[in-house]
Amino acid sequence: QVHLVESGGGLVQPGGSLRLSCAASTNIFSINAMGWYRQVLGKERELVAQITNDGRITYGNSVRGRFTIFRDNPKVYLRMTKLKPEDTAVYYCKATMYPNYYWGQGTQVTVSS
Hints:
It contains no helices and 11 strands. The protein is mostly beta strands.
């Protein structure tokens, strides 16, 4: 069982930056992969960024070059820059420990002027 707590969401103007953090209840290097996903009401949850325990990183196409995932055990962070209104969503942290996975409660990010 892994407990995840996200923080750092909020309201930001287009072009601005935010940093999200996800605190895990265990050593994140014991977790196969940590990831950030986002969801807009009525749409499927989509991958934003993921980092595996051996350091492999994957980004969603819409955020590559603007967002950065990094870690400092037991936390994983998502640095978001050049934010756009279409980045508005609830952002969730996910921990994958095969065959199980765990979600945080989510944090709202709103990009608006």
